[in-house]
Amino acid sequence: xxxxxxxxxxxxxxxxxxxxxxxxxxxxxxxxxxxxxxxxxxxxxxxxxxxxxxxxxxxxxxxxxxxxxxxxxxxxxxxxxxxxxxxxxxxxxxxxxxxxxxxx
Length: 104
Known about the structure:
104 residues; alpha+beta; 5-stranded antiparallel β-sheet; 2 helices; 26% strand; globular
């Protein structure tokens, strides 16, 4: 079972972007941020200290498995009936094609 998700940027990346916006006096739309990455969610887990994490893979990680904080996982596109949201699935497929054409 493959679950496709959007991975939010690391907290430090968001903070530096917000600092730049404050300095420039502008506001950017976070939904259009290029730092958001499409990934496949492999597994969720938790440590004995209560810290939740997820294992993800995708073109942004060169198809290697990466452990990330679950707070970075956004909009999973697998629906309750087992199908996928077609628009988001198309975005993921486009993302993979862009990565392949860029030599990634």
